[in-house]
């Protein structure tokens, strides 16, 4: 599961054609956020706004705030380059919060690097 997240830089990096799991543990203070009726969604788009892929997180232990975004080789089997992304949390009350990138004035980058072995 090769990939990296640079949270402060708003960057997710993965090699072309690889898998990458992004695990979440959401807390409010020291208490886990109950995500049983919530969803976490991610979209990756090119610079023209065309959707490259979209994912919805699967629960690991939603009651304890643990979710997983499973990025597959099919998702990353696109031309190497830089794309735009964000990850949103939708709560049962209808509110939506962008959880990545955390800074409201930042646009996150999803970078796919070139693969050699095919």
Rg calculated over all Cα atoms: 14 Å
Sketch the major β-sheet: 7 strands, mixed
Q: Find the count of extended strands (DSSP E, 2+ residues).
A: 12
Q: Given the structure, what is the number of helices?
A: 1
Terminal CA distance: 16 Å
> Fraction of residues in helices?
under 10%
The class by helix and strand makeup works out as mainly beta
By oligomeric state, this entry counts as single chain
- Contiguous low-pLDDT stretches (5 residues minimum) are none
Q: Shape, please?
A: globular
SSE sequence, one letter per element: EEEEEEEEEHEEE
SSE layout:
Blueprint: E1 4-6, E2 11-15, E3 20-25, E4 27-28, E5 31-32, E6 39-45, E7 51-56, E8 58-61, E9 66-71, H1 73-76, E10 81-90, E11 96-100, E12 108-113
Parallel strand pairs: 2-12
Antiparallel strand pairs: 1-2, 3-9, 4-5, 6-7, 6-10, 8-9, 10-11, 10-12
Describe this structure in words.
Strand 8 (58-61) and strand 9 (66-71) form a beta hairpin. The chain has 118 residues and is mainly beta. The strands form 3 sheets. Strands 1, 2, 6, 7, 10, 11 and 12 form a 7-stranded mixed β-sheet that branches. The protein has a 3-stranded antiparallel β-sheet with strand order 3-9-8. The chain has a two-stranded antiparallel sheet with strand order 4-5. It has 1 helix and 12 strands; from the N terminus they run βββββββββαβββ. It is 3% helix and 53% strand.
């Amino acid at each position: 599961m090769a990939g990296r997240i640079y949270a402060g830089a708003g960057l997710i990096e993965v090699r072309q054609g690889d898998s990458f799991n992004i695990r979440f543990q959401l807390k409010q203070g020291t208490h886990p956020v109950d995500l049983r009726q919530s969803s976490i969604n991610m979209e990756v788009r090119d610079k023209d706004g065309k959707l490259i892929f979209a994912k919805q997180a699967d629960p690991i232990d939603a009651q304890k705030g643990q979710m997983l975004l499973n990025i597959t080789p099919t998702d990353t089997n696109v031309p190497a380059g830089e794309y735009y992304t964000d990850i949103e949390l939708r709560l049962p009350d209808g509110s939506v919060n962008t959880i990545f990138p955390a800074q409201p004035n930042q646009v996150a980058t999803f970078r796919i690097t070139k693969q050699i072995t095919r």
